[in-house]
Amino acid sequence: MLFYREHVVDVLLLLEQFYHDAFATKRCLTEISRLLRATPPASLAVLATDYHFVPRLHACLQPHAANMDIVHSLCLVLQHLLRLPDATDGSTSSALHHDHVVESGLWKIVLDAMKRDLDNVAFHIIGFALLSSLCYAAPFTPHETNQRDLVHAGAMDMVLHITTLHSEMTAVGASTLADLCYKNRTSLAMCVCHDLAEATNADRAFKAEAFQLFSKGLHRAFRDAASVSSIAAAIFHLHVASPAKAQQCFLQWSLLDRWVTCVSAHVDALDVQYQLLRTLDLLLRHNETAKDAFCAKEMPFHLVTALDAMHDTFGVALAPVAYVAAIVFASVAVTTTSAGAWFVHGGRIQNLIKASVHSFAVSSLTHFPKAIPALEQCIRLVELLAMPGTYRAILIRAGAARHIRYIYTSKKHDGVIVLCERALGALESGS
């Protein structure tokens, strides 16, 4: 079958004419994929508005739904069709195809193929990428209707099942799960005993014990940076959707133990550490049980050790990680009440001092003099460590008062000046 066309619609017409022939169908899909790849994303909308491209394509491919070669070619077509425009140009035109792929059921051809061939890891990676792309209407903008329909049709269950079967799918599986739940607030009405209960995609993930899968994934792939980062990001999104459930599951499935291992294993990866710590920050907020467990498992010591090793490697580039680490330590140092009040927790501060958190805070004042956010958080951490009064002498001997006075006289940043005044007041009170 020899043909070359300059427009996707011309090939679509040929496909409609010869779709009964499997070879012709695969050849047409290859040609369509080539033409779509050369088409700018912003120019793809006309295929949906003028030619009803996706429904016509779906009609041609239904007889070949069991042909893996054709399904694979379909995935390549959709990969180029579902490209989102650059976030800077403000266009969301290609989201029309996202709507049509889900509404027509074209994506289910891929889902059914994954169900039939559970051991085809290479195909599952492509299929998961398709599911992820269908979850967005624009860069960083979720397509909540698609997310709901995908999960309702069994996409989340399939992702969890395949990720459980194949350890090499851990990273892409966690990433796809995060995409299915990303900023999803659309409730799915589920009929249970004739009563309607509202559940978001995140609720369904908790019910399917996604956190158990995350715990197993971190246990078997804790040295794989991609897997660790993807799982941490997925937990982050699930926590944003349902903080109470995420905090409960985090402790229930011993994920804090996994965090200790991962922090120690990735001292050479700043991005992984940042993802781990920003997720840990969320999980510890207003969670006194988790804060106690954080200290009981000696995580302050492991984290300070990792930060020291990373500073030797990365220098001032460590500032964003040090910033989040200081927030985590400060969160552990205080207890919050249901009424919103807070006070310092002497027992936990003792654990932080034993783990040399004060040394991290003081050294950061000189390591990151131009990183204002890190500087502010470390000054605040010194203030909290000094509040009980027991450890003021230790902090002063470590150079906290001297460094903060220098910062106070040399910086013009209003926020830094206020924090310096408060920290010096805590250090000098009663001295």
Summarize this structure briefly.
The protein has 431 residues and is mainly alpha-helical. It has 26 helices and six strands.
What's the arrangement of secondary structure elements?
Layout: H1 8-18, H2 22-37, H3 45-49, H4 53-61, H5 68-81, H6 95-104, H7 106-116, H8 121-134, E1 136-138, E2 141-142, H9 144-152, H10 155-165, H11 170-181, E3 188-192, E4 195-199, H12 201-207, H13 210-220, H14 225-241, H15 243-252, H16 255-265, H17 270-284, H18 288-296, H19 299-314, H20 319-333, E5 334-336, E6 342-344, H21 346-354, H22 357-367, H23 372-386, H24 392-397, H25 400-410, H26 414-428
Antiparallel strand pairs: 1-2, 3-4, 5-6
Give a description of the structure.
The protein has a domain at 286-430: Alpha Horseshoe (Leucine-rich Repeat Variant), CATH 1.25.10. A hairpin with a 2-residue loop joins strand 1 (136-138) and strand 2. With 431 residues, it is mainly alpha-helical. It contains 26 helices and six strands. The chain has helices at 8-18, 22-37, 45-49, 53-61, 68-81, 95-104, 106-116, 121-134, 144-152, 155-165, 170-181, 201-207, 210-220, 225-241, 243-252, 255-265, 270-284, 288-296, 299-314, 319-333, 346-354, 357-367, 372-386, 392-397, 400-410, 414-428; strands at residues 136-138, 141-142, 188-192, 195-199, 334-336, 342-344. Mean pLDDT is 92; it is low at 187-197.
